Amino acid sequence: MTDLKLLAMDSEDLQVISTHVQDAVIRVGDMGYARGDRRFALLMNRFDWESGAGRRDKGLRKRAALHFDGVQSVATAGIDTNAHDGVLELLAIHFDPIDGPAGIIELNFAGGGTVKLGVECLEARLADLGAAWAATAKPAHALD
Fold first, then answer.
1. Domain boundaries, the chain
2. How far is residue 60's CA from residue 62's CA, in Å, rounded to a whole number?
3. Less CB within 10 Å around the terminal CB: N or C of the chain?
4. Residues with Cβ < 8 Å from 100, sequence gap 6 or more?
5. What is the DSSP code (8-state) at residue 137?
6. CA–CA separation, 89 vs 42, rounded Å?
């Protein structure tokens, strides 16, 4: 099993990253904005969807890092940023272009929480950080 390393420079690339991080769990304290570096980064335990887990297999999780460069602003909604030990489940990441390469990257979490990043252009990197371990449960979503 190889470690995942992905770079997104456009919406299609970001969709690939979004697919790989769907159902990742993230500690609120493991997200942060480095204003001087214009970087927003987060550590996560992502569900390894590409491992091909069967119906009875609970699958694998991997520690991974995701960061966005060229970040000019960060806005959160529905997330208590002071609850550093709080856990969020990432559902999807989207990019909405606004002016040329600039736009808004939106991270959507279960329960309605969002993080919106104002960026001068889309540049995101995802990298696995180590060995995989057995997941305690395979993510499942109710279909409405």
1. 5-50+62-133
2. 7
3. C
4. none
5. S
6. 12
**Is 47:77 a contact under the CB 8 Å cutoff?**
no
Query: What distance in Å separates the CA atoms of residue 59 and residue 50, rounded to the nearest whole number?
Result: 10
9: left (phi over 0), alpha (psi -120 to 50) or beta: alpha
- Six-digit token string for 59: 């699958």
Are 29 and 17 contacting, i.e. CB atoms less than 8 angstroms apart?
A: no
pLDDT tens by residue, 73-102: 999 999 999 999 999 999 999 999 998 899
In the numeric block, which tokens belong to residue 138? 């395979």
31: which 2 tokens?
A: 């997200």
Task: Compute CA distances 31 → 22, 40, 50, 51, 138, whole Å.
Answer: 16, 7, 24, 26, 24
Average pLDDT, the chain: 91
pTM of the model: 0.89
